[in-house]
Amino acid sequence: MYTVAFPSFCVHGPRHEEDIMDLVRREVEKCDRLGGFFNMMSMAGGTGSGMGTYITQCLRDTYPHSFILNQVTWPYGTGEVIVQNYNSVLTLSHLYQSSDAILVHENDTVHKICAQLMNIKQISFKDVNKVIAHQLGSVLQPAYTEGASEYNRNPLGDLMKSMVCHPEYKLLGLRNIPQMSETSLAYSVFTWPGLLKHLRQMLIANAKMEEGIDWQVRPPAGGLPPAEKGTHNKQLRFNTSLANLLILRGKDVQSADTGGFMDPALYTSWLPPGVASSTWRTPMSFNRYEKSATLVSNSQFLLKPLDGIVGKAWNMFASRAYVHQYTQFGISEEDFLDSFTALEQIIASYTHL
Amino acid sequence: MGGGTGSGLGTFVLNVLEDEFPEVYRIVTSVYPSAEDDVITSPYNSVLAMRELTEHADCVLPIENQSLVDIVNKIKHMSHSGKLGAEIKQSSTIISGQGGVKGQEKPFDAMNNIVANMLLNLTSSARFEGSLNMDLNEITMNLVPFPNLHYLVSSLTPLYTLADVNVPSRRLDQMFSDAFSKDHQLIHSDPKHSLYLACALIVRGDVQVSDLRRNIERLKPSLPFVSWNQEGWKTGLCSVPPVGHSHSLLALANNTCVKPTFIELKDRFMKLYKKRAHLHHYLHVDGMEQSCFSEAFSSLSSLIEEYNQLDATKGLLMTDAQRLNIAV
């Protein structure tokens, strides 16, 4: 389907709505019990950002009580599509209204994982997609939720329950370790304390992968009033969390000590860690890794990239460049301003965690 | 653009297409006249046509005959010019149509072949599969920030068959560097010393996204982009290379370097128009009036002025626009 960036939202979406919703309805009717919808799309180009957002809206209208999780691919910082910043702004602001949670993968991060951890020389999209598939698999494969002794029946629901406590905070990030090439895997041994220590520091220091972690960053000492805490954390480059879900898979999983994630200093002041942190332990190993730990977190990790994208889009909007391409398809300057406002609101909310 | 058929009938067809199919993008390849053009009234024809192109085309790819001649000569002098491909005839005896046998034979076949290759590369993503498809309408969408500024400088590599099929990375990087060298451009201009508004790279063959990213990072520092589009790159990857090559690259740049070409056109027009020379040939025709000329002239002038305004921002330290303030 050839599309012209976001205008696919206005033209192609409505044109194919009936066929697509028909297909969806048939699949839904086959289910014994509908767990929800998991949509995967990119944010930079046309089809993903435009059609994907439109379809999500249709799903929300047709199935108002179902869970909708959107997996969104964040474009390369150095540009894949020139209007990617506009498309990203429009996509995120619209998705925030219809989706329950937005799980983000950044192309730059996955690319670095391929280059530095997997040691791939000539990285193709196949390699990038493999990493993303592995990370998603570690979350969506059947698991034992907290305290359960059988596989969860409601994976999306359980995920939402743990991660999205407030409709203003819907941005989720994923960190999965270990991640390495097959050859290195043969010579590596992992322990739960080691893996959990790395994951915790990755969360605190906002490291996107298991290399170049800044061990200097520490959670703030308790006792600071909330107003001061913000600036204090910024100075420390500390990443405040709203919710964290640990998904552990593999050998001796019951013995893993996840106490480090219960530390109140990791979280915003208005949420007790008992509520904000949870762990799923599954004894089955995942994808050849004897032990595998995934952290799904709702935190400030996307603040900087989001602020960057909004800043660049705003600068471009200030000169009205490319705007005529959108207005000719029905997206007005007011629509742009609404989207910018919505995102600035989200940025402000996350900043003041 | 210099002759009558192209500038007149060509732009008429453009208008008809717009009326019949208003939603379909119109991408025009126009050959701009060189200074020593045979047709004396070519400045008139060109400026009249320019107005049509500015108003009714979505995207224009200007070509200059002189650049094509230079490229053809370059191919002839290449040391490894073993197999140049079946389309290029080494000795062409095509004679220029403007009366009389010219002393130097103009190899139109070879020149046309270059433009044909450029068009093939442009449409490759629409005809073949690839990991990062780039359709024709994406070209307009990404490369045209303001409706009138839709003139793109094209450059093509390679211009000859590479002897070695398994090209190591170094040669691949050379292809990217070549695309930004003046020798490979289809129009004489200096993009590196003007302002880039946007740039598209259409790659064919066995090239991966990491090669693409690496080369963009490498070339970016030497290419001046407008302040609000610092990462103004659009990329397309098509897996099928052109016949006889292992990969190829077409670069399309929306750059203010087309301004001098337009200014020259304007000056040549004024030289004739001031004296009202040859004007009566046009005014004899029903429907042609003097106002057509003055309107075409002002259309070209305002186009040049738009480019001027953007050029004025070059090198200035632009402060970021003030962001919206949200009450918390």
Give an overview in words.
The complex is a heterodimer of chains A (353) and B (328). Chain A is α/β, with parallel strands linked by helices. Helix content of chain A is 45%, strand content 14%. Chain A has 13 helices and seven strands. Chain A has a seven-stranded mixed β-sheet, sandwiched between helices. In chain A, helix 1 packs across helix 2 (47-62) and helix 2 runs parallel beside helix 3. Chain A is globular and about 60 Å long. The model of chain A is unreliable at 1-6 (pLDDT under 50). Chain B is built from ten helices and six strands, in the order αβαβαααβαβαββααα. Chain B has 328 residues and is α/β, with parallel strands linked by helices. Chain A binds chain B through residues 2, 4-5, 46, 76-83, 111, 115, 122-125, 128, 310-312, 314-322, 324-325, 340-341, 344-345, 347-349, 352, and chain B through 126, 131-132, 135, 137-138, 140-147, 197-198, 208-211, 213, 216-217, 220, 227-235, 318, 320-321, 323-326, 328.
Structural class by sheet pairing and helices of chain B: alpha/beta
N-end to C-end Cα span of chain A: 41 Å
Number of helices of chain B: 10
The separation of the N and C termini of chain B measures: 59 Å
Q: What percentage of the residues of chain A does DSSP assign to strands (E)? A: 5-15%
Spatial order of the strands forming the largest sheet of chain A? 1-2-3-4-7-5-6
- The total count of strands of chain A amounts to 7
Biggest pleated sheet of chain A? 7 strands, mixed
In sequence order, what are the helices and strands of chain B, one letter per element? Answer: HEHEHHHEHEHEEHHH
Which H/E pattern describes the elements of chain A? HEHEHEHHHEHHHEHEEHHH
Biggest pleated-sheet summary of chain B: 4 strands, mixed
- Measured on Cα atoms, how large is the radius of gyration of chain B? 21 Å
Mean pLDDT value of chain A: 85
- β-strand number of chain B: 6
Largest chain-chain contact? A-B, 41 and 41 residues
Chain oligomer state? heterodimer
Model regions low in confidence, pLDDT < 50 over at least 5 residues of chain A: 1-6
The fraction of residues in strands of chain B falls at 5-15%
What is the radius of gyration of chain A?
Answer: 21 Å
Helix share of residues of chain B?
A: 40-55%
